[in-house]
Structure formats: structure tokens, C-alpha cells
Amino acid sequence: MHTVRSFCRVCTSVCGILVDVEGDEVIRVRGDKDHPFSQGYTCGKGRALPQLHHHPDRLEQPQMRVDGQLQDTSWHTCLDDLATRLKAIIDEHGPSAVGFYFSTMESAGFRMAEALHAAIGTPAKFSPLTIDGTAKPLISDLVGGFMGLSGRTDLDNCDFLMLVGVNPVVSHGHAISMPNPTGTVRDIAKRGQVWVIDPRRTETARLATGHLAPRPSTDHAVLAYLVREILIDGRKPDVPVQGLEELTAAVEPFTLEHTASLTDVPGHELARLATAVREAGCVAIETGTGVTMTADRGNVTQWLAWVLMILTGAMNRPGGTWFHPGFAYQLEVFGDLLPITPVEGSFGPGPRSRPEAQAFINEWPCAVLPDEVAAGNIRALINVGGSLVTCMPETGKLIPALQNLEVFATTEIINNETTQLATHVLPTKDPLERSDITLHDVLSSRVSVQYTPPVVAPVGERRSMWWVFAELGRRLGYDMGNLGDPDTSTDDDVLAVLLAGARSTFDDVAATGWAEAPQPLPAPWVDEHIERMGGWRLAPPLLVDQLTALQPASAPLMMVPRRQRNKLNGQLDFLGERADILISPADGEAAGIVNGQPVTVRSASGELTGVAKVDDSIRRGVVSIPHGHHDANVNRLTNKDDIDRVTGMVRYSGIPVSLHPG
Fold it and tell me: Where does the record place a coiled coil (predicted)?
């Protein structure tokens, strides 16, 4: 038996791991104590990589649909057929008839898929951005004047952390990247304060200094109240800002009494939090899918979180929020000024079938895919690693749309409900079979990029994802640039191209396994950008208008989604995490539902059935359903027409529902 040092790619925390291997069998995964970021921590999801690799339903051969049935075939036959059919669609209907969905943590494959998308020249691009995350880049764009201002909390030095709609003890923080979340939250609480705002007393809330449980979809009101209080007494005067008067007017209605009424949180609890915020040196705030999946309310909540951090002096300061150091390096090398995005936002034309749904960051909303297929505008879809059936909205309309595509090609490692709908199944290497670098080259204030060699050889006919898209591009006659030659390049050759021009060379990163991230706080390039812009934009008109237009959440029972310890979205079903539907004892009694019995949850768009878990950790009026299950698919409750007109984000949280015995 031998051990290979690697890193986990189940989630964005990308913890360092040691993988024990005997022959072609993966025996065990454990934490790497020498890793500078995770320091030996692993979770159940990461330790399940051996089971993922040896899954009984793993895909080992390319498949092609023949006479309505998927059949094993060769790469040559599969890619020839796929290219022929794609070329015919492009020749007859134009490049826009081909759509792409991007969802993979494989760096080389992701970049080659991007190159193919650019070569085809189609505007039809989809990703999880409009499923769970548009609010964060939107606020960076509107408030910071640059979408690259994607801040992360300085967890090493933070002494006041507010977690809104995020449960990092279970989820690892979604986009926070927090290995050992239990230890991290405990450490911050010991040296300062941690506050959780969530309608459930989550695993993280149990470790916190304080917890507020507002009605679903009213987080924005809590933050608006806090901003109002800080504007009265507590704002850091040396922070450059603009729009102060407009902001003050926008939050003026959110008095203590009004906010307590909207949120159903006692006034003394709100006042206690306001006092703690006022006394803090700076306030770091992290939001999660509990915020970002609430569509327009998510935009407003994320905006007010940024505003509160700006007013308390947390932006680009130790113990607050730090920013991606890569842009500073670009300035050092190229000497260009960062572009200042318009206060109106970075939007573009959307799909023809839904003209009201504009593009954001050059992406179309996932919600429009069924309409584009029905209108004949999209006839082929290339799915880059996504579990579409368990992630895209309104499953009842999505599945027929996928079935009506002339071409539906998907990369995958395990057979699932999405691959069963495909015309071409492209089996790619799993995380232990390929060399790789971290896709997003920022993990913490210490580590910038990681590298792993392959741990085991690929099973069957699995190929590198980059190779699949390079071969497909060649068959279509496209110049795919210098990323890699499918005849001669290795995985490492492609990764070396991706790191060309970086602070650390590929050879250096490969030799050590990671590269340290230089991150002085404050970062001069951030301060220079904000000064040139005229200060942080506190009151973008688009957001002020959305806040003003919000109506009180009035439904007696609302659904909120959540993540689970042993599941991540559509992955890791084999770990047996059940789709428990959390309801309060009062709501269970009112609906005649007892713990452990089947319960049906209905919305205006559909229904699902799961197992009731009557739990006093959740407040009355809330139904909590986990992401990513096929049998209790939360997307069946969503409505593809219920979208935020600004970003195209579908409402996945705060949906009115009713409960019925299953």
C-alpha cells in the first residue's frame, strides 16, 4: 500500500487529503496534517471519495442513444456522431442553437469547455450562478464597481462574524471555503462574537454567541435596521463613500418596532445585536444560499450586508473582508487600471423566448432553458458536469425539454437521472484519476492554488474532460487555441498552460502541492480602485428600488432549502442521507403530521413527498427541505416564471407551501 498527497474537490473548501491506495483500489482518505489551510481536517463527504471511485454505477464507456436506448460505444464513434449532429444544427440554425451548462471543478476540462463555447460563438451559456449565486457578483458590480471584488472573510483575524442564511458547520460555507468549520466558528466565538441569522437553530447557531430566527425572506429587514442604527451612531468616518443621503432615506422605515413586526423577532433581541455591532471593531458578514436563493430579496440582503461592512470599516481591512490578490498581480504586470463598471450594472440581451430575462455576466438564467427549447431556439445542449434534474428549476417542465432536444451531451462519472435523458454520455476521469489544480485560485488568506497528481489510473475508457472537448472542437473544425493537443498533451501539460503567467510556476506548485497567497491588508489596489471610483457606492438606484418595492412576507408556511452533512447537491446519494423535511411541532400538529411519517409538500407549481422530521430547532411557519434529492426534488416546488427580473435568479427559497400527510 502507498499514500498519495492530494486535495478534495467535493466542495470549494478543497481540503488537503492523503489517499491510501493498494494496487488499483482506493482504500482510505484522511486529512493531511501538513496542509497549511485545512491542517488535517476532512469531512464525511471527502472521506467518501473511495466509495465514489468504486461506485457500482460508475460510467466506464462512452454511450450513444440508438433507437431510443443508450448503448456502449467507442470514443471515435460517439464523438464523430456528436460532432456531425452538432455541425448540422449549427449550419441550419446558427451557433445560438447550441447551449452550454457549466458545472465542474475540473480546471482543465472547464477551461477547454469554455474554449469550445467561445469557438462555437453561442450566447446560450448557463451555470449554477442563476440557481444559487447571482446576488454576490451583482453587489460587487453595483457597489464595488468591479465584479472581481469577490470578498472573503479574514477568518484568521476576525473577531466579529455574522452568518446570514449559511450553516458552514454542515455546508463548509458554500463560497466561504471554511475547512474545520466547527473549530473555526468556536475560535472566533472565543476571541469575539459570532451571530447567526437563520430561521432554524442550525448546527452553527448552536456554537454562536447569538442567534436570531426571523421569518423566511425577512433577513434584509434585520440588516436594514442595523444599517439605520449605524448611520445614527457608529459609522467609521474615514471610509470613502457616495450615496449616503439616498441610503439613509432607503433604510429610514426600518425602525426597531417596524423591523420586529416584519421579522417576528423580539425587539430586545434586535437591539442586543445592534449594540454588539456598534461596539465591534469591524463587522465581517458572510451570506449563503439561504440568502442568495431568495431572488430579489437576496439582492437586497447581500447589498445591505456589504453596506454594513463598509460603514463599520471592515472592507479590505484585517479582521474584515479581504479581496482576490490576482488582480493586484495583473496591475503589477500589465499596469492597467481596473475598469469601473456602470452603476446601472453589467447586463446584456437575454434569450429570445424570454426578453424580460436579461443576461448577467454573459450568462442566461437557467429558468429560460425549457422556453428556449420549446421555441426551437436551443436544439442542442452540452452539459459540463451538472446534475440538471436535481439542480434546475421546475423539474416537471425541465425533463420534457431535455427529452425534446435533438442533442443532449453530458459529461459524468456516475449514471444518474440526468445521464438517462442524454443522447451522448461522455465518461470523464473522476477526482482521483486526474492531475488537477484548484479551479478558483483563491482559497484562504494563506493558500492561493493547489496541485494534485493522479492517485489511480482511470477505469475503463474514461478520458480527461479537456481531451473530450478538444477532440470535439477538432471534429467541428475549430481552433481551440494553445490549451492542449489531444494527440500529444498530458493533463500536466494543460495545467501548465493554465498557470502560465501566474506568481508561481506550474513546476513550483507541483513540487510543493500548493502556493502561498500574498495578501497584505489593506491591499493598495483595492483602495486605489475605490478612491478612483469616488467611494463605495452605497445606494445603487436598482437596489434602492428593489428594497422599496419589497412586500412583507405574508404566507403562513414557506419552504427554505438546506444542505446536509453527507450530501452535496446531487452528489453522494450512496451515503444514505435521507430527505428529511423539517417542520416545527406546531406546524406538524396543525397539519396532522407526526415525526417519521411521509409528508407531501405542495406549492403552486408542484409537489414532493419526503419523511417528516418534527424538530423544535426550526421556527413555526418554515418547512426546510434539503437540496439535491431525486425522490424529494425541491425543484418540483419552484416556478421558472418566478424570477428576479434583474438577474434571472429563480426563487428557490421563501416559496409558499402547504403540508399534507403522505
Answer: none
